[in-house]
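User: I'm putting together notes for a lab meeting next week and I want to include a structural view of one of the chains we've been expressing. I don't have a solved structure, so I'd like a prediction I can at least talk through. The sequence is below, exactly as it appears in our construct file.
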Amino acid sequence: MKKIVALMLVLVVALCALTACKKAEQKATEAAATAEAKVEEAAEAVEEKAEEAADAAEEKVEEAADAATETVEEAADAVEEKAEEAADAVEEAVEEATEG
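Assistant: Thanks for the context. Below is the predicted structure for the 100-residue chain, given as structure tokens.
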């Protein structure tokens, strides 16, 4: 009889241990799923920030390119204007020289 009670006690302890293991496994699975979800959220946030930074950089580059183009166009217009003034002055000097 003592052996049967001892075996039943061992069986109860084994069942308790098995139940505890299953609960621990379930909690570990839940923790892994939660961690995976958080990693995915973090990765998405990093990707979003990277895209925003890339867009901002692209916008700055476009603004700089537009400003440079505008500056070059203004300089070209100024050079053209000076060239026209110089041509007019040369033409006027030639006319004065030929009249005199």
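A couple of points you could mention at the meeting. The radius of gyration is 43 Å. The chain has one helix and no strands.

User: Perfect, that's what I needed.
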